[in-house]
Amino acid sequence: MLPVHLEMALATLGWETRDLSKKASVSLGTIGKFKRGETLKPTTIDALRAALEGAEIEFIPENGGGRGVRMLLDT
């Protein structure tokens, strides 16, 4: 997950950084570091990703058009 994917996921969910902070149990400062491109521990990134995936965000792998995110919807 890259900072741009985090921003896309937050926008998709309509979440603020503080929402993610609560859901992932990660400090606002740490999320800010990630958004600025600073390196975080893999376990911290896993916590962020897990919180987003728990909110129905799917991270799309590279498929020739680039990586991204999407929201899973019940049909």
From TrEMBL:
It comes from the Bacteria. One of its GO terms (molecular function) is DNA binding. This is HTH cro/C1-type domain-containing protein. The lineage of its organism: Bacteria, Pseudomonadati, Pseudomonadota, Alphaproteobacteria, Rhodospirillales.
